[in-house]
């Protein structure tokens, strides 16, 4: 049924409850299953056709019972493949009935596409249960992934977020395996052929995409909330396949505390009787917030204190918090339609960081948020091919491409901006009111703004409407006059060629003007028109966008940028990151120069903060990538990088001290990796020594947090021998993060021959589909191999598409990450020409973003290449 802004199912039939039974699961190779779903429905008006969603299922029988006990079998079952629907036609009109029952018997496949009801491959850590299916040494577990539109791959249903219902699930599995679902077990009964039927309690009213089940050779670690819920402490468990449960301890430690924290700040108790977290071996996303049974990629939930890189600690803490935030914001209250996906993801991202900051204030995660979340969002949002935070979605099947940095990271960044303006306490009080008002229902962005406006006494919609519904974000250009500054807002594009018709938005911009470095506060003044003059400005020191709370860039006059660099001790870490990132982005767009950026960066040799160093290195890495083909400039930038990091690298050293803080360890790994790849000979020698010692004497381990820099340096300088050793290690590593780290490292190969071999390896059987992009990101970032990567993709497109297209999220991610690093108009034309005429549905938006990015890079290279060379020569880097 088409309505004004979306293509949805007819509103004549609404689900009330699903009773779903899964049986005859074939675990010997075909992986088929049978299902019966009895759907209690409200038939609002007489119908001769009932339309549901179904995809890759065969409905064998359908029957409707209404008006007491009048049953009627469907006389016609038709599939509408394009819209993933099944039409049930009835010979006689089915009367209106508030509690009719629609029963369907169907069959499907537990696929290997990481969508719907699917199987995951893994190699067991210990001897598994006898019934676990296997092919050679590969074993299988089974789980679901339904967001956004894949519940219909597992059972015929009304698969739209505002068609909420309750669910009763039962599944027949081998006696020695464990089944999980959203709710606790209600019964276990004998099944056929030595199997058991596990049934689960009825769920609350919820959307189809939040239903979940899983089964396998599972074990768990358990803890309990400190708060009591209905008089009892809630059980919180992390489930893994047998042999891995101890690596779930860190996630568990976080999870029970986060459940309590969110219960307190949202003023609503966690609504379910248990909270389970499950590690899934093959997973297309990072995690999924199924109510009461959150599923995770293994690297997002498992952590081994002895063998995991410490950086994964923050990842696990954050992803656990993000998904648990959804138990309220998304699950209890769900967006009305996919166009408001950001309501779920933007909020959960922001409050996930809030929870990590609450648990680990020493991690200084908001500083990392500015360099990771804000900058990533601004990079995508500076393209013409960006999209508004609240993006129109007519066809739900388009939504997968919107699970991106705009929905998650721009969404969370503007929430941070708003919460800072209202105060976090006021903001959370408004959120609590919003959740109470819409519990077990659906809501819109305007509903959230209304709640926040009521709580704060401010017109939040007036602040936020343009941020949510308009594409892009502003750059604030500053002009100085004695005692005053003029500020003018305009849309920022990385290509620097914004047209007047693209620049009609007037954003509400909190100026965050700080004039006294000793004052922690900043002026609450906001810019609400195109330009304004700010008077009585002390020219000795001023800084706009204090702590980088606002989602915009600031373009200072060159002399002011230099002064801010000279007085950097007056800046917060967030201010430093913003200053560097803005200068780098403005150099790309042509609103400023690379020379100005390099002059600023030179002043940071004595920096000590990890997040600031991270931004410095990201900005320099991008410049080096853009100008990589000019040997003079490339060598000059390499020398520049080396001189910048040399002293800090030598000072921090190689050894981790007892009780050393987390950020110092992260900085050590970052500096060593950067120095080694910039040609610091002592670092290269030491890295190669540790690499060779590790492979010749396995009892001499490499510190987990130094594996990535050491492996990358060894591959860069070690040729085929180092490559072969590390490729072999991929098959043998038992570390949860080991495979990811090795793929990132192998992408540092320096020859086309090794790059081709690595690509063959990636698209062979050993590398999981979920990780196909990991190695290619490294190859794309590597100037020696990015051309070879593109030639391979062209020559082997059928293989690439064949391996990845079963899940369009994976293919879209691959195309965007593998092809965006070029800085050549010829390459952009070649990419466009190659995909012309091909079916690009599912990654067409990503291709346009690739095109925009490459054209922007090319324009930057053409404009600044000569100037950068001159500057490097003048400052004796060449």
TrEMBL record:
Keywords: Aminopeptidase, Hydrolase, Metal-binding, Metalloprotease, Protease, Zinc. It holds the Pfam family Peptidase_M1_N. The record marks 408 as: Transition state stabilizer. Zn(2+) binds at residues 322, 326, 345. It comes from the Eukaryota. The active site is at 323 (proton acceptor). It comes from Heterodermia speciosa. This is Aminopeptidase.
